[in-house]
Every structure is written in C-alpha cells, then in structure tokens.
C-alpha cells in the first residue's frame, strides 16, 4: 500500500494531502496602490479609509463623505505624488518590505518560511497567511512593521489576520510581534542610521527633527498608546545620541485636530528662530514610502526653504539596511523562541 507519513503515524494513500511541520514569518506593512494612477489609488484608498480602525466615524456618516467627496478628489492628487516616488520595481513601501523579507529569509534559513503582505492592497494578508499554511506552516509569527502600536496600524493588522483564519478549518498557531518602540535593538539601529546620515552631511544641522506619522488627537484621549510610544522612542534615541531631537507629527488627514506639533508647522517656523539648517528623519516608518519620499523629502524641503531655510537633509528610513535586518532578526528570533 502507498502511504504518506508524518513524524508519528503512517496514513492511508486516500488520506487528503497535508503539508506540515514548518514555521512561517509574515512581515506586514500598511499597503500601497498597485500603480501610481488615479484608478489604482482610488481602489487602495477606498479599502484603507473604509477601515473602521483608521477612520473612527460611524459608517453612516463617513461612507457618504468618503465615496461622495474624498474618492472623487484625493486619488488624482495622490496619484501625482505617487508618480514622483515610484520606482522601476514598484512602490517604495512594497519594494523595501519585499527586500526586508528576502534579507530575513537568508538570515533565518530554511527552517523558517518568510513572506510579506500589505494590510491594504496587494499582496493581501489573507492570501499570504493561506499560502504559508498551505505550504505546511503550523506556526506563524506575524510581524506588523510598526515600532509604535496604534489601533489604526498594528491592531488593524491583527484584525486582518483574525479575519483570514476565521475562514480556515485548521488554524496555524499564531504569534504577533509586539511593538518595539523602546527596544534596545531598535533604538541602537536608529542611532547608527541617524548618526551615519548626519556624518554624511556637508553641514551641521541647527535642529534634528524626528517626524512621526500623525494620528487624530482623539485617539490619544481614547487610550491609544501611539503618542506615548512615539514620545518614548524620541526620548530614548535622544539620550542614546546625546543630542536634542525635535519631535513632530506629519501627514494630517481631515479637519479634526491631530497630534501636535505638526511637521510642516515646525519646518516653517524654524528659519524664523534662526535655525536655517535642518536634518529630518522618520523613525516610525520601517520603510521609506510616499509619506517620507514625497511629503518629507520633497514637500518638506520646499516648505522649509520657502520659509527662509537654507540647508535641508532627509535621512532615509531603516529599510533593508544591514542594521535594520540585524535589529529585525533579533526581535524575530526572540519572539520565535521555542519554535526555532
Ligand atoms: C507609520 C504609521 C502610520 C500611522 C499611525 C498612520 C495613521 C493614519 N494614516 C491615515 C491616512 C493616510 N495615510 C496614508 C499613507 C501612509 N500611512 C502610513 C503609515 C501610517 N498611517 C504609510 C506607511 C503610508 C504610505 C503608503 C504608501 O503607499 O507609501 C495615506 C495615503 C496617501 C495619501 O493619499 O496621501 C492616507 C490617506 C490616517 C487617517 C491615519 C490614522 C487615523
Ligand atoms: Fe497613514
Ligand atoms: Fe501624506
């Protein structure tokens, strides 16, 4: 009789085929359109901005605004911005996330199957969780690539994973990478990256700005830890570097009050305070993306120089640099303890 076997038993030949015995790692980032055109951006924004974790306004009020106004105006403007930063390989966010996954696959070896997904757009979380499970991953560590926890980002990745397994009969064991905003390995990786960036400049900045993605002020009042996590990252990094950092929050969306101070306000006010040379970096983004390549590196420089600033430098995110992969490998091996 032909048989297939697992570690303990021999199964009859007519038993359904099952793959088993593997461990998976799924990196997840926010998501990005498939192409820098209005249609693709509209599809992506519709999914993203319909997430109740992202816009916490009752659907009955929000959906008419989203569908009637925002999806008719923003996609064209955003597509223009995306086209300024799009690379031959695709959206910077997707390219860096893919490169991080490939680098981690090399570090972790054949014992771990590494894949990556996007919370909104492609490749979807469900498609990648299913792929890992079908390939025999009985254990999966999901790593939302957000150092600072927020409901809009980290918790939303958790939701997508729970939704994916809700449709499965046989669940893999799941673990989630916790926020790492105050982890020594993360602070050290940021310190090395920012110090290397500063050392490469032909000027001494009068101010160094740590720009985090913003959130509505109300989320802080409702108990979201994001603001505190950002403050702690900036404090620990400033202490490690022995230099003052100016914290700011970028990418305001909609009319509600967002966390302050706003990055654009800071950039516009510094020249008037005699601070005419700045360096800016984005410690909350694990990869460069629209918000860093266009909003900070392009528009941020314009805002600063129009306000009388002279020298401006944008220091890139950790991306798939060696320091970044060292840090992620440390965090991931720790969370996979007992599995590998
Ligand atoms: C790093 C953490 C992020 C938090 C927190 C976050 C909250 C948040 N974002 C929006 C609205 C938009 N964000 C957009 C882009 C975007 N946001 C993040 C990360 C966080 N967002 C990233 C990495 C990106 C870049 C995506 C890319 O493709 O490169 C956009 C879309 C771009 C645009 O049209 O300008 C919007 C809109 C809200 C409302 C929010 C918190 C409630
Ligand atoms: Fe965002
Ligand atoms: Fe933006």
From TrEMBL:
Keyword Cytoplasm attributed: yes
Organism of derivation: Parasphingorhabdus marina DSM 22363
CDD domains linked to this entry: Ferrochelatase_C, Ferrochelatase_N
Entry EC no(s): 4.98.1.1
Gene Ontology terms: biological process: heme biosynthetic process
Pathway(s) it belongs to: Porphyrin-containing compound metabolism; protoheme biosynthesis; protoheme from protoporphyrin-IX: step 1/1
Binding site residues for Fe(2+): 213, 291
Residues forming coiled coils: none
GO CC term (a single one): cytoplasm
Chief location bin: cytoplasm
Database matches in InterPro entries: Ferrochelatase, Ferrochelatase_AS, Ferrochelatase_C, Ferrochelatase_N
Keyword tRNA-binding among record annotations: no
Family in the record: Belongs to the ferrochelatase family.
Gene3D superfamilies: 3.40.50.1400
Reaction it catalyzes: heme b + 2 H(+) = protoporphyrin IX + Fe(2+); Fe-coproporphyrin III + 2 H(+) = coproporphyrin III + Fe(2+)
The organism's place on the tree of life at top rank: Bacteria
Keywords: Cytoplasm, Heme biosynthesis, Iron, Lyase, Metal-binding, Porphyrin biosynthesis
Name of this protein: Ferrochelatase
Biological role stated in the UniProt entry: Catalyzes the ferrous insertion into protoporphyrin IX.
NCBIfam families: hemH
SUPFAM superfamilies: Chelatase
GO molecular function: ferrochelatase activity; metal ion binding
Subcellular localization, as worded in the UniProt entry: Cytoplasm
PROSITE patterns: FERROCHELATASE
């Amino acid at each position: 009789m032909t048989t297939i076997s697992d570690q303990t038993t021999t199964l009859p030949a007519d038993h359904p085929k099952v793959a088993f015995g593997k461990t998976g790692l799924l990196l997840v980032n926010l998501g990005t359109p498939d192409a820098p055109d209005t249609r693709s951006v509209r599809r992506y924004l519709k999914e993203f901005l319909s997430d109740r974790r992202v816009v916490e306004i009752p659907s009955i009020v929000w959906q008419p605004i989203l569908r009637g106004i925002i999806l008719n105006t923003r996609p064209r403007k955003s597509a223009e911005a995306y086209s300024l930063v799009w690379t031959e390989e695709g959206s910077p966010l997707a390219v860096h996330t893919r490169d991080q996954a490939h680098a981690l696959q090399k570090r972790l070896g054949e014992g771990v199957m590494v894949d990556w997904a996007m919370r909104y757009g492609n490749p979807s979380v469900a498609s990648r969780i299913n792929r890992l499970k079908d390939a025999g991953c009985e254990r999966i560590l999901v790593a939302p690539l957000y150092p600072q926890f927020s409901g809009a980002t980290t918790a939303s990745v958790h939701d997508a994973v729970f939704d994916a397994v809700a449709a499965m009969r046989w669940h893999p064991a799941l673990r989630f990478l916790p926020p790492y905003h105050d982890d020594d390995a993360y602070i050290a990786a940021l310190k090395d990256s920012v110090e290397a960036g500063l050392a490469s400049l032909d000027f001494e900045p009068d101010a160094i700005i740590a720009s985090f993605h913003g959130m509505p002020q109300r989320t802080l009042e409702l108990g979201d830890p994001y603001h505190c996590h950002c403050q702690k990252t900036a404090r620990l990094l400033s202490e490690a570097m022995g230099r003052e950092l100016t914290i700011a929050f970028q990418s305001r969306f909609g009319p509600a009050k967002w966390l302050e101070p706003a990055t654009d306000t800071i950039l516009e006010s510094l020249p008037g305070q005699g601070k005419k040379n700045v360096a800016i970096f984005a410690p909350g983004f694990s990869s460069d993306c629209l918000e860093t390549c266009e909003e900070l590196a392009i528009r941020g420089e314009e805002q600063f120089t129009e306000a009388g600033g002279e020298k401006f430098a944008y220091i890139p995110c950790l991306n798939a640099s060696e320091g970044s992969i060292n840090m992620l490998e440390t965090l991931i091996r720790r969370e996979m303890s007992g599995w590998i």
